[in-house]
Amino acid sequence: MIGLEEKREFREFEERAKNFGPDYYKDYCELKKYVWISGASKWSDFKFIFNQLLDLLEEAKGQKRKLTDLIGTDVAAFIDEMIDDKGWEKKQKVKLNRAVKK
Description:
By secondary structure, the protein is mainly alpha-helical. The chain has helices spanning 4-18, 22-37, 43-62, 67-71, 75-84, 88-101. It has one domain: Orthogonal Bundle (c-terminal domain of poly(a) binding protein), CATH 1.10.1900.
C-alpha cells in the first residue's frame, strides 16, 4: 500500500522527469512502465531505481546524448540488473545465512 509520503515522492519524480524535455520524458515514461511490471516489490526499490534512472536521464541531457549511449542498447537488461541488484539487501541475506549455518 502506498501512503501520502510515497505519493508525494512519486509526484516529485514525475515533475523532475517532465523538466528534462519531451524526448527524455518519453524515455522516462517507457522506463517507468517497464519498472512497474518487472517485479520490484517495495517502494524503497522503486524509489532507488527511479532516482538512478532520473540521474542517468539528467546526465544524458546534460551531455546532449541519448540514454542508450550511457546504458547500452539493451535497456530492459539494464533495468533488470538494477532490480536484481539490491546491494545491501542481498549482502544482509548472505550474512544472515552464514551466521545461522554456524
